[in-house]
Input
Amino acid sequence: MAVTSMIGARIQRREDPKLITGHGNFIDDVNLVNMAHMSVVRSPHAHARIRSIDTSAALAAPGVVAVLTAADFKGVFLGPLPVTNSFVADKKQVPEQFPIAAEEAAYAGEPVAVVIAEDRYVADDAAQLVAVDYEPLPAVMDLEKAMAPGSPLVKSDRPDNIGWDAAFPAGDIDAAFAEADVVLKQRIGQQRLFPTAMETRGCVADYIPYDNRCTLWTSTQVPHFIRLFVGGALGVPESQFRVVSHDVGGGFGAKLRPYPEEYLATAASKITERPVKWIEDRTESLQATTQGRGQLYDVEVAAKRDGTLLGLKFTQLLDIGAYHGVFSAFQVVACLLGGGCYEWKAIHARSIGIFTNRMSTDPYRGAGRPEATHLVERIVDLVAREIGMDPAEVRRKNFIKSFPHTNNFGLVYDSGEYEKSLDRAMANIDYPALRKRQEELRGKGRYTGIGFSTYVEICGLGPSSATAPAAGIALVESSMVRVHPTGSVTVSVGTHAHGQSHETTFAQIVADTLGVPYDSVEIRHGDTGDTPFGYGTYGSRSLAVGGMAIMASCHKVVEKAKKLAAHAFEASEDDIVVDQGRYFVRGNPGEAKALAELAFASYGAGLPEGMEHGLEAVSYFDPPNFVWPFGCHICAVEVDPETGAVSIDRYVAVDDCGNVINPMVVDGQLHGGIAQGISQALFEEVRYDDETGHMLTGTMLDYLIPTMAEMPHFELDRTVTPSPTNELGVKGIGEAGTIASSIAVINAITDALAPFGIKHVEMPARPDRLWSMIKEARA
Amino acid sequence: MITAAFEYARPGSVDEAQSLLTKYGDDAKVIAGGQSLIPLMRLRLSQPTALIDIQGIPGLNEVRRDNGSVEIGALVRHVDIQRSATLRDTLPILVEMANDVGDNQVRNLGTIGGVIAHGDAAGDYNSLALMLDAEIITNRRRHQARDFFRDIFTTALDHDEVVTAVRFPIATGRFAYTKFRRRLYDWAIAGVAVQEVGSSWRVGYVNLARTPRRGASVERALAGGASAADAAAQSRSDIDPTGDVRATAEYKRHLAEVLTSRTLEKATMAA
Amino acid sequence: MTQPVALTINGRRREDHVEPRLLLVHYLREVAGLTGTHIACDTSQCGACTVLIDGEAVKSCSVFTVQAHGKQVTTIEGLATDGTLHPVQQAFWNEHGLQCGFCTPGFIMAAAYLLKQNPSPTDDEIERGLEGNLCRCTGYENIKKAVRSASAAMSGATAEPSAQLVGSAAAPVED
Output
């Protein structure tokens, strides 16, 4: 095995030169000859019957190629949008969703017609000319009202508004509560969020008439998934359907499903016999791209006065939207992780998925784990406050301390050292000094607070032993490693980065594992014509699963190279030593062959008896378990009691994602992740009018993505506890920051407002919200 | 999104602009920097049939000081205000406001004339114009600021009228401006400007009613010797905020009072 | 109805006939074929479309092409000269100032403008200088670092890059 040199190095990204000079290749940069443009006519109503659609004026506009409604697509689509058959619920309703509404629109933004025109300006003009006669129907917006018998229906062909109802009981919950000195209840919200990748969605479909071949360029995290489903719906086999995704301008979970527009553009290309381009504008995006969170928790905790946590009961109400997101039910994982990094005697959780007349929710960075962390870390603080114990000490007392640890639901935490990260974070922020300062400032009428978040997350999705029973899929990952005759290496993978730096970090792994120069390794992803089937990039899985698939292929290549070396040296394979890509007979390192030489030989004459030519391998990796990153974040804030404005004074994080391939990239992932969690805590919320279902935050003027000025400096530190489940010892880092950070901020704010008797604060902690709470508390 | 189609003309003089406005009729609009107008057009909330681009008209981008007042051409951009030595000497509060308008990119295009003509209650300069009794000069006449801002996005401008300059009295006394917002480059949720003029104080409110507002009651209380905090309590009668996605009306009223008090304190401390 | 326009883009003069409503960003991307300038928000919030007009940063999604008639436009493609990256570009690379890279051209243009106006900005001035640009990946930490680093490089100081430049000859470093 090669001595590690590239792995762990802080290496400048090879993705960057094109991106910093304006030569990236994003979806709107794809242009084809004779290409037409699609504009989507969307329902302005949260819920309406479509009485009729008059396309004549639009069709008559100069430059319009076609105006298509559901009727025109009949017979083109063979099936509905996919929904993963997630977990076994006591009750489940999976209504079919077609890419375009025919008779009834169930959310504002649902496609009802498309205009295909010579350019996008003409297409947008003509879209305004499509006259749709709607009969508005009652909008179902409130989760609890939607659950009630007799509620108006989200769609009139459904029996009720319940998407699922699933119970997750673990342990004797009554016994746990019977032991309690303290029982506390809290309702905790998780507002809906726009993932807000800076690049909106978009696609270019090029269906070749009479040939049943198609290429679809799209901005996605999951090219193979798109091929499977869009190709399937149009009756184009994978062998004739190529999905290409070049540079992707962010995803955060919102680009991990096939969307209606990908079906519509492809079908429109087939119907019009033209390449068709669709680029989502931001206003559309806010309506028609999947949203995150949208949950409400009712939580009850039992604890002893000495700080021992006993039992946890909670119900997750999840706002599905009008239709299931492809992976919406994944967020139920919050139920299985609601216990966090603590020992509990029993946990009873229940998840109810509820349809509303809104856009679907689907995973957004963290997907279920930020919610679980927020819930348990909030509850631990409530217990600490109630019993008058330092929140750090309640955490310390209840931490899981030995690993592997099987949690209440049978999930096995691979490795951890929770106390170490807590101690490190407390030292880094100088906790005692901060508490002292808080005390002094309170005397002067200033309100500062300190908030903890000690988190553990599940990632590296996922072992088929777990995902197959739960969701009917095996989330394995793939690679192909091909060593060319003169030694350069092409690595094709089924994952697909959208900012995660795979082209750099995967090449670091390959360089070390094969012992070849980093520069000689090329990583390919995003093109199904060029890569083995893979499930894509989400759930912090690309390294722990995809990286391991790469390792597996590298090992196969090394094995074959050893055979080639043995043949060349006329030695036994057992006597061949491999050292940093040099192959030699034990005891004779002076006479070595580089991998490039062996590769050249592998394509030439005189191979060993029975050996095939070439030096390449394909591997699929099915991980034995999930991986479990963890850490401790501490946030220090000050709240202005007169305006309710919050300022973050310090943000300290100690994270542990196992072994690190490129520390610079890991830090970058944390920065962005933490920023998104802070942003949820303080700024972001999708708001709809509760009566009409009209969206109130329909532009980026009203949906608040913070600027540089609102973000604190992130003081990062790291512990390294390798995962024992994979050879690289790696976990995942894409989501950890977001999973940890929202509650660090909220706990800090709650701590700051403790003198007012305020025990709980909802997100986002808007100034007006905090001011109202302070005012009420003072009254 | 894409704007609706329109015709475009670039007059070389104010007279020509006026005749183009007459020619194209009611649905024509003047465009200068376009930093408020173009986003509205892209959302198709505004669909003018013609744009009269006054950028090329000479003489509208000057800042001139004369007896007791300073006249700022309509095409003077926010960035010009930020950099203007004349304004720093004659109307420093305007420079401070300009620093807080939008962002660099917006400040490089947006103009004071555009802000005035747009008549937005959230347009910072409008409240300053009102509280300092500025004069708005057009191709046809002079408006007193107090008569100019009529209703939400509605001014006293006639259809064929083009703002050519704004004339402010020179104000070099103590001042402060507080713009409360959640992100640095946002419009104000609430803004409060205070300026010492002679021995009295002027107070202006941004985004706290359908139009820019002057803090007349607060000014009277201050003139009567009230403390900053006591005077600030009068702000409620000077404003009439409505609730929106940013904040409730109640919160804005409270904010106005807190900010009035703080802004007055800041101005007096800044001496 | 189209209008004649003449613009100089990255030093090259172009003459075209365009619809008055053609946004400058669309002109750059679709007529001039310079796709480095991006569109991300529609409402002038995000700055991904930032270019320089006569040396001043503007959001090209909030400018009609006809308004830029007769002017000099610099896009991200015109920032590097003779194969040498602009110090801001180099600093974004060195400091991992980008992840997905979609907002990056706008940030680089806005930062280049900022440093031209103010070669040694304080952190507060960097925040104010880049308040018109949104990034969803980096949490801004490394963007700020990149601007500081570019500022140092432009003033002649040798900034130590956070990341190792890797070519075949460069030795990797341990964390």
The mean pLDDT of chain C is 92. The longest strand of chain C covers residues 3-9.
